Amino acid sequence: MEKLDQKPTITSIENGSVGSAKGFKTGGMHIGMRTKKPDLGWIYSEVPATAAGVYTTNVFQAAPLQVTQESIAEEKKLQAVLVNTVSANSCTGQQGLENARVTRQWLAQHLGITDHLVGVASTGVIGMQLPMEKIKKGIAAIDLSGSEAPFEEAILTTDTKTKHLAVTFEIDGKPVTIGGACKGSGMIHPNMATMLGFVTTDAAVAPDALKQALKTIVDKTFNRITVDGDTSTNDMVLLLANGQAENQPLSAQHPEWPVFLKGLEAVCQGLAKFIAGDGEGATKLIEVQVTGAKDNQSAEVIAKTIVGSSLVKTAVFGSDANWGRIVCAMGYSGEAFDPNHVTLKLGDLILFENGVPTPFDEQQAKNYLDEDSIVIKASLGEGNGSAVAWGCDLTYDYVKINASYRS
Amino acid sequence: MEKLDQKPTITSIENGSVGSAKGFKTGGMHIGMRTKKPDLGWIYSEVPATAAGVYTTNVFQAAPLQVTQESIAEEKKLQAVLVNTVSANSCTGQQGLENARVTRQWLAQHLGITDHLVGVASTGVIGMQLPMEKIKKGIAAIDLSGSEAPFEEAILTTDTKTKHLAVTFEIDGKPVTIGGACKGSGMIHPNMATMLGFVTTDAAVAPDALKQALKTIVDKTFNRITVDGDTSTNDMVLLLANGQAENQPLSAQHPEWPVFLKGLEAVCQGLAKFIAGDGEGATKLIEVQVTGAKDNQSAEVIAKTIVGSSLVKTAVFGSDANWGRIVCAMGYSGEAFDPNHVTLKLGDLILFENGVPTPFDEQQAKNYLDEDSIVIKASLGEGNGSAVAWGCDLTYDYVKINASYRS
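Structure tokens for the assembled complex are given below, as produced in the milestone run.
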């Protein structure tokens, strides 16, 4: 266990994941949607858990997202979640919606709980209906006492690594755990960058507070990453809190609410960075830190614009300290600022100071850019606004993965 | 000459360019900024021409754009324009601004005209000062009676083709010509997608009308293209009208004003499509036609979002009719619409109708996508708004060009 912070003490759990919190079980299996790899995952809580979700803003919101929202709307609780790969069940019309409801019902029946305690999530090709027979057999084989594959493995598509994390800290003197797992961009039939995140905690949290906490934290973690600028129809992050830690229910009134938020941010930020660093074809994680903006919102827009620039991403791939592209991206972000107060650093190397190019050691810059993780620091001298955003480089493999034919 | 339209009769001029209109001379030469290729271009009008410009919205507006605006501000006229490659003279501080003014002065002296009748434009690496000695020698060698290279060739960087066009039509019963040349994305030291466009006409046009016409037409031509979403610090389109056609000065009050606008649109749209189709690494021109949007502005946002999507661009490169990516991009455009009324076509092949996937012949779609020029048609059933946007596919060569080291 690594101590992440001094006060409050939030420690990470080795190999922690979405099943680390008390009272949660998770698993995965291979049901033949993919050739060999696990392709169906599930999460189960021993008791109904207070639930909150954030969903894609895409007008074409996929069927499972609609059905999960229907479930949570009933009593703000979920007890189980089913995740399938291969078909995104998006743009599939009335039949897709009906199929999502049927798979929800199958899992509810298998677990002996009511339908609306089940959430569903999908990732895969848009416009393809769910392979219902395979999913039916898969659900029938779910065994809460053990599973053939880890959940975090069963939800992957073209991800090259599993992405999971958990932290623990104390609330009311009782140990509380928050754990999560997610998938990033790409599919075995590459189609779109679908992001799914699942976070569980054994903390007791009031429903509205949970929803607010998730929205706040997602805005500065998952919503700060980009791989290719394409917002999926299936993006969803679910947060389940089952109260098994037996703390006093948390809300903004609880003195230790900031501790819970800090823990939740640690998990969501960690997962978000895993996704950015494992973007399709990526070889490097790019972190952009903007400070001195007129406000935080302005800083966020600028940070996201830099990390989303194709020219910045290709320059990082080529280890080229072509800083002009970075200031260029700042300049077209839509935010107003005085170019003469802009300073830019690559790690700790100053490239541009108060609007004027600075002589720098090209080799030193190149060596830094050859690392796996790159930090770009831009300061504006306009105010106290700051923000961080994460992304990855743009490589031949991104084009390869996404230019290949679906079949 | 090809007849472009019946009424008004606008005909294109074979091999027409920015020097086609009466009283304009243009040229280019090699002054040693690039290894071998022509790298300095000039435009000259026998008499001062009414001038209008549109300039990048990037906060870091390059020095030559500032100096050209200073020139035009004096009496809304230009008589000559100088264009250098290799250095963008952007983010070069006070020295860069001073250098731009000095090159302006050199050309004015060489031609025997006042400074403020000269406009300057640059394209190249950001943060690099102009090679003043080379430019000085180049200007001294400018000969209005002939030149060693065509203007449209001398302004190119990594462009693979020259981009030029001219049309002719009648105003007040007198022949009028509008011609243009431009450069697109990429440089010999690839750095950013700099777009420069130069349009000349022998029509007599009132200054304010000229400015308004340029803004209106650029909004639906040059501002509808994207190669990689990165807005340069150096983008500029200049329009010079020298009145040598001897028509009555044009403005909105002139009965044939719409004819002039149509001619100007034909030139600007043609040049814009040349740039999109010759984007860095591009193998195909993509045209997106959006109809049935709630208004034209909404249609424009949706069309630009589709043509800017990395996933749509890679799918077109791979000739993959992965239509889910197109509707996904529409969905995250930020525009509200009912997904159930959306219909999508690839050329004339229907892929998605009223929100539901349509079975289609994959091979037929693939054959269509193998062509050089692809048309994507999206209709929304919300209203009468329509717009067209142009872009190109995203290829290995885009990554290759932009990942390579500057030096």
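Chain A has two domains: 8-277, 285-403. Residues 82 and 120 of chain A are 5 Å apart (CA to CA). Further analysis is deferred to the final report.
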